[in-house]
Write a structure and sequence with these properties.
The structure holds two protein chains of two kinds. By secondary structure, chain A is mostly helical. Chain A has helices spanning 2-7, 14-35, 39-47. Chain A is elongated. The chains are: A mainly alpha, B mainly alpha. At the A-B interface, helix 1, helix 2 and helix 3 of A face helix 2, helix 6, helix 7, helix 13 and helix 14 of B.
């Protein structure tokens, strides 16, 4: 019954095709991006959270704990 | 290059930190209370606003939006400023954000126990609060994008990508799911009905998990785990794939909450397929987080922060493996409506969100107060208490869930249900409920240990409202080759494009699910005998919503023999066309009610509401004596008819004039019937309206040859 309802929508066959294409395009694009990313850029990005590290405070050194 | 002096706003981070700890304790305390009430109904002290049906939404909202929400904001305000090398764009907006969010939480804590609820899970708050949420979210968004636009670091670290995805998607989800028609100041009805309402709600509900409990926390993981381990993230390449794959796939998976319901099959399959695909990016993220500790594992032994992070990320891995498994139809057939789901979400909430938050607080608070943590021992104790608490919570709930799922379906060799009385199964899992409450209490006690430790830490240090920092200004003009030779700057160096692409990625999944479902609106198999509710039934339905009955009772019989035997004919999509909102529920602490209509006499319902145990010995349902004495509020009945007509219910023109007379006539009929059973009740008491609604449920398809409309 559900099948009949959907075939009554004009051009409903396009939906799965659009979905599949979108999906493939997004994944191939992201995959290529990651694969060909510049090493220098990746290293720069990796270091960003560590740039303001202040290791003099925080856990692990207080004696009376 | 000129070096600029500026400062980070630590005060706002501190405020959100306090709020996180405070609301965490409150939300979990309510959790422990409802965990007790589920097997000791007397634990509501006979007070209507302390009943399970009203407190359960308070618990979920408090934990998600108050505890995790404030946790997100604390972590984002801390990390965003530092990753952007810039102070938050506007101190005023930061303050408005903080106080606005706390106002929302307080409003929720007042209105939910009073019974003001839309009944839609994790979106229970009524329309004025919905508008406030939207406003505060806009404030947060503007402040965040303002900070990103005036940043001093050209590139946006992956944590910021996750933050952007969060603000964009949550705004979209909240607005689409909250489209409702106000009836009065504290009551509204969603524009969607039945199956469409269900699809929108679970698109929202699922993605609230995705974009409120997951993506912002992944952003926090990408910032705080490298910080705590003092080493960069394992693979930045992996984080790129993790981000785009996750946000793109997540949004499609919502229909897995509606497997075997009346939702069209294609949408169910879509939900299943995308849920299974989700394992890949989720585990990519988990691996990226855990492998960041490569070479630092020895420190996990001594550093409680790393312990919290490791178990949090492991819990994320477990929950994101289990989620796709639960989305497989044959598994879902057993797991859905049972405590299995409760175990699953608590591995996520207590493990992933809770422990990551605790680790983050232990890391941030000493730094915000320029001191060291008061006690590492206590932090280690907290770690063990909370980990044990999770085990004591989850294991009995898994066991209870499997028992429910299997015993509901158990047939005797002769082909009869082995446990035809639902209560027989409920009473068997009461010991598991008790152990779960203990596990929850254990976890909560850990929060108090943390609070003590953090307060002591704060007292030993000095809070610095503005932390001085310096960084070179970002050149206004962006010369591609001179400044940065990297690829992909076109995207990450330009936040506006990034935001648009993120929005497209998350909007596509929703659109592809919604468009066909809304296009078939006129074609949904309409059952001729399905009529709109009578005025009295409409009022009764609103009492059902006010009392939160849907928190324990589903109204959706799945097409299994075990369910049709127990409850009756399975639920059809066409039966819900006048249900604003849908009330399918997601948990069967008690039995399904879709075919309750006509099953018992009115007198049974009356006595059952007065004292459930008088009709069902051993029942864990709380009594609702106030329904017997409260007068039915009919001041909005006419407006409800008009509103329902404008939403598509075929009440004839001018029926409003007739509505009150019809209501009284139907109510007097019920009241007279009760009199014959020696029950004296006023026709205008709330119980009468509720009985009218319950007796109507699921009966439409039994009416042969009746015509639609009144």
């Amino acid at each position: 019954m559900i099948h009949d309802i959907f075939t009554s929508i004009e051009g409903v066959g396009l939906y799965p095709i659009i979905t599949l294409i979108l999906f493939l395009v997004v994944f191939v694009a992201v995959g290529l991006w990651a694969l060909f990313a510049n090493r220098e850029y990746l290293d720069h990005m990796k270091q960003l959270p560590l740039e303001d590290s202040d290791l003099s405070v925080g856990v692990g050194e207080r004696k009376d704990g | 290059m000129e070096v600029e002096q500026f400062s980070y706003d630590n005060k706002i981070v501190r405020y959100f930190t306090y709020a996180t700890a405070l609301w965490g304790a409150v939300g979990m305390l309510v959790g422990v209370i409802v965990a007790l009430q589920i097997f000791i109904p007397e634990a509501n002290f006979g007070i209507s606003w302390l009943t399970y049906g009203r407190l359960r939404p308070l618990h979920t909202n408090a934990v998600i939006f108050a505890f995790v929400g404030n946790g997100i904001f604390a972590g984002v305000y801390y990390s965003l400023q530092r990753l952007c090398k810039a102070r938050m764009w506007s101190d005023l907006l930061s303050k408005l954000h903080f106080w606005g969010w706390q106002l929302i939480i307080v409003s929720a804590a007042i209105t939910l126990p009073l019974g003001y609820t839309t009944s839609k899970e994790y979106a229970e708050l009524e329309w004025p609060i919905d508008i406030l949420i939207a406003l505060v979210w806009v404030i947060f968004t503007v402040n965040m994008f303002g900070t990103i636009f005036k940043r001093r670091e050209r590139h946006m670290y992956v944590a910021i990508w996750f933050y952007i995805a969060t603000v964009v998607t949550v705004a979209m989800l909240h607005i689409v799911n909250s489209i409702e028609f106000p009836l009065s100041l504290m009551k509204s009805y969603p524009v969607y009905a039945g199956v469409q309402d269900a699809l929108v709600q679970w698109w929202y509900g699922h993605n609230a998990v995705a974009f409120f409990l997951t993506t912002p926390y992944l952003g926090l993981m990408y910032y705080f785990v490298p910080k705590a381990a003092n080493r960069p993230i394992f693979s930045y390449r992996l984080s790129i794939i993790h981000f785009w794959a996750l946000i793109f796939i997540y949004i499609w998976a919502g229909p897995h909450h509606l497997l075997y319901t009346s939702l069209p099959d294609w949408a169910q399959s879509l939900g299943t397929v995308f849920s299974i695909m989700l394992i890949a990016p989720s585990w990519g993220g988990m691996i990226n987080g855990l492998l960041t500790l490569r070479g630092a594992w020895d420190r996990v032994r001594t550093d409680p922060i790393l312990k919290f992070f490791v178990v949090a990320i492991t819990a994320y891995g477990m929950a994101t493996f289990e989620g796709p498994m639960l989305s497989i139809k044959s598994v879902n057939a057993i797991s859905h409506y049972t405590s299995w789901t409760i175990a699953h979400v608590h591995v996520g909430a207590l493990g992933w969100n809770g422990l990551l938050t605790f680790g983050m607080l232990y890391w941030m608070v000493p730094r915000l107060f320029k001191t060291k943590l008061y006690s590492v021992k206590l932090a280690n104790l907290h770690f063990w208490i909370s980990t044990l608490g999770i085990a004591f919570y989850a294991i009995p709930m898994y066991f209870a869930g499997w028992m429910e799922g299997l015993l509901w379906k158990q047939f005797t060799p002769e082909g009869f249900l082995q446990y035809p009385n639902f209560l027989e199964i409920v009473t068997q899992i009461i010991p598991m409920y008790a152990i779960r409450a203990f596990g929850g209490a254990l976890y909560l006690s850990g929060v108090f240990v943390m609070a003590y430790n953090l307060i002591k830490t704060m007292k030993s240090g000095v809070a610095e409202d503005n932390e001085a920092a310096e960084a070179p200004a970002l050149p206004k003009k962006y010369h591609e080759k001179e400044v940065h030779p990297y690829r992909h700057r076109w995207l990450e160096a330009k936040p506006a494009q990034f935001i648009v692409l993120t929005f497209i990625a998350v909007a596509i999944g929703g659109l592809i699910e919604f468009i066909p479902t809304f296009m078939v609106k006129s074609n949904v198999p309409t059952i001729a005998s399905v009529r709109p509710y009578t005025p009295l039934e409409l009022e009764g339905r609103d009492i059902y919503i006010r009392e939160g009955c849907n928190n324990c009772h589903s109204q959706m019989i799945r097409p299994f023999r075990s369910e049709t035997e127990r409850y009756g004919e399975y639920s059809k999509v066409g039966e819900f066309v006048y249900d604003h909102p849908f009330l399918w529920g997601s948990k069967r602490t008690g039995p399904d009610l879709h075919r309750i209509g006509g099953k018992y006499p009115d007198a049974w319902h009356y006595q059952h509401m007065e004292d459930p145990r008088s009709m069902s010995p051993g029942s864990v349902m709380p009594p609702y004596p106030w329904l017997l004495t409260s007068k039915l509020d009919t001041s909005h009945t006419r407006d409800k008819i008009s509103l329902m007509r404008s939403l598509g219910a075929p009440y004839s023109d001018g029926y409003e004039e007739q509505a009150m007379a019809d209501l009284q006539e139907q109510a007097e009929g019920i009241s007279k019937g009760l009199e014959e059973a020696k029950i004296i009740t006023d026709w205008d008491s709330e119980i009468v309206a509720l009985i009218a609604y319950l007796q109507r449920l699921g009966t439409d398809i039994k009416v042969e040859g009746a015509q639609a409309g009144l």
